[in-house]
Amino acid sequence: MTYHATLTPDENGSLLVLFPDVPPAITFGFGEADALLRARDALASALEMYIEDRKPLPAAKFAAGHPITLRGIVAAKLALHIAMREAKLSKATLAKRLGVHPPQVDRLLDFNHTSKLDALEDALAAVGKRLTIHVQAA
Question: Which among 6, 35, 59, 90 would be 20 to 30 A from 22, CA to CA?
Fold first, then answer.
């Protein structure tokens, strides 16, 4: 998952980082490298709010600026959220399908919890999806 960020000089000499497609994702940095390093965490935190509020994720339409790609595990958790929304599947129902306790599903959607990739694969399979991984040149 990739969203584009804009960097704007701020009054205090820092760079303000904004994501036009994800308005809650805001951060700053002192210099471009610092701003872009902080951008990924700001983006992940904002997208996690969409999951917590059970809202659809914003589409990545804005294509200018700096592309910020989320970490693979975060992208897998977002894919699970999207798949559950598309299937109109509650956390409780997914827990039943997986034969686990509901808090385990909560952890699968929690960006701060280090979920195992196989658990995310199982959850996606229970929603009729398959996790695939693509490697591209950096």
Answer: 90
Q: Are residues 46 and 8 in the same domain?
A: yes
Specify the CATH number for the domain of residue 120: 1.10.260
Does residue 20 sit in the same domain as residue 53?
A: yes
- Domain with residue 47: its CATH number is 3.30.160.250
* 116 within domain boundaries: yes
Count of structural domains within the chain: 2
Position 36 confidence tier, pLDDT thresholds 50, 70, 90: very high
Per the prediction, the chain carries an average pLDDT of 94
Whether the model pTM is above 0.90: no
- Per-residue pLDDT for 128 more than 90? yes
In a domain, 138, yes or no: no
Residue 61: how many CB atoms within 10 A of its CB?
A: 9
Compute the average pLDDT of residues 104-133: 95
**In b/e form, how buried is each residue of 63-86, taking b as 16+ CB within 10 angstroms?**
eeeeebebeeebbbbbbbbbbbee
Q: For the range 32-37, what are the long-range contacts, defined as Cβ-Cβ under 8 Å and sequence gap of 24 or more?
A: 32/7, 35/7, 36/5, 36/7, 36/66, 36/68
